[in-house]
Amino acid sequence: MPIDSIWSYAPDLGPVEGRDLTGYTVVARDGTIGHVDRQADHHGMRHLVVDTGVWVFGRSLLVPVGLVASVEAGERRLTVSCTRAEVKAAPRFRTDSETMDPAYLTAVGDYYHRLPPRESTAG
């Protein structure tokens, strides 16, 4: 995935742009991660802040929108194109101010960009 597309929804997702995904369940290739707590677009780097509940000890994770592989509006669920372990190993999200920190966002984008390419999980 090109590094600039990590911050943009895939064009084949349909009308996701501008949709409020807050509360949607986030599912990885191998299980549920949590739910979308909020969406942000700082410095042109669109991302979701995902509340993991007890899975990662109440920690939130930042997920670039380019990882979204499918959105099922009726089920209020979205699927990302990586595994739970890959999401958990991303640069740690500690404070809300990091969602506005270009250096942190760049580190997150670089991490996901280096992951092996995946086939779409949609379908």
TrEMBL record:
CC terms in the record's Gene Ontology section: plasma membrane light-harvesting complex
GO biological process: photosynthesis, light reaction
Residue ranges of coiled coil: none
Highest taxon of the lineage: Bacteria
Xref: InterPro entries: Bac_photo_RC_H_C, PRC_barrel-like_sf
Gene3D superfamilies: Photosynthetic Reaction Center, subunit H, domain 2 (3.90.50.10)
Protein name: PRC-barrel domain containing protein
Organism field: Streptomyces calvus
